[in-house]
Amino acid sequence: MTQEHDKTEDGQDENLAAEALNEALNGAATVDPKDVEIITLRDEVAASKDRLLRLAAEMENLRKRTEREKAEATLYAATNFARDLLSVADNLGRALQALPQEERDRAGEVERNLIAGVEVTERELLNVFQRHGIRKIETVGAKFDPNFHQAIFEVPTSEKPPGIVMQELQSGYQVGERCLRPAMVGVSKAE
């Protein structure tokens, strides 16, 4: 705040008090030492109030920044561990894809139970990822984004405009707004 707008507790303008003090000191009037002390104390109180308000605002900003950093640290704390678990999720998916539906239909009870166990394990792992803010990146049909996709090959086509993901070779994952692992994809290009 500027001095022009600061008001003392009794409503007098501080500038007027300072001008009165200057006039008194320049010999225009007799100077009462108590008046000098009152004006000095008022200036100190105003300065102290200003410092206190600034300190309170700084503390509030620090509290907000600390909460934001804590939330980010919580979200991204397990990033390296989650990145290591992605290969487990990939292998469970590959194990299920390796067995064609015809073979599943012909499988005995033991084999069907084993397949069901692998499916349940994969679903549970994906649910755990979801609870911790880790999710698969949507790829097929999306516009190629180098932040979340890694182009492995190009597909010449006239069906889609250039730069659209046509095929996914490996799933990508993100945690929060960050890419945990980019999806390996094939991207459309003009014929």
Structure overview:
The protein has 191 residues and is α+β, with helices and mostly antiparallel strands. It folds into 3 domains: 14-72, no CATH class; 79-132; 136-189, Nucleotide Exchange Factor Grpe, Chain A, domain 2 (Roll), CATH 2.30.22.10. 55% of the residues lie in helices and 16% in strands. The chain has 5 helices and 6 strands; from the N terminus they run H-H-H-H-H-E-E-E-E-E-E. The chain has helices at 14-25, 33-76, 79-98, 101-106, 109-131, and strands at residues 134-136, 149-156, 165-170, 173-175, 178-181, 183-189. Strands 1-4-5 form a 3-stranded antiparallel sheet. Strands 2-6-3 form a 3-stranded mixed sheet, with no helix packed on it. Helix 1 (14-25) packs across helix 2. Residues 1-12 have low confidence and may be disordered.
Query: Helix segment count?
Result: 5
Note the gap between the termini.
67 Å
Show unreliable segments. 1-12
- Looking at how many chains there are and whether they match, the oligomeric state comes to single chain
Main sheet attributes: strand count, strand direction, barrel closure: 3 strands, antiparallel
What is the count of β-strands? 6
Strand proportion: 15-25%
Class per helix and strand makeup: alpha+beta
Identify the overall geometry: elongated
Bin the helical content.
40-55%
Question: Which strand order spans the largest sheet, edge to edge or round the barrel?
Answer: 1-4-5
Overall number of domains: 3
What attributes characterize this protein structure?
3-stranded antiparallel sheet, 3-stranded mixed sheet, 5 helices, 3 domains, single chain, alpha+beta, Nucleotide Exchange Factor Grpe, Chain A, domain 2, 191 residues
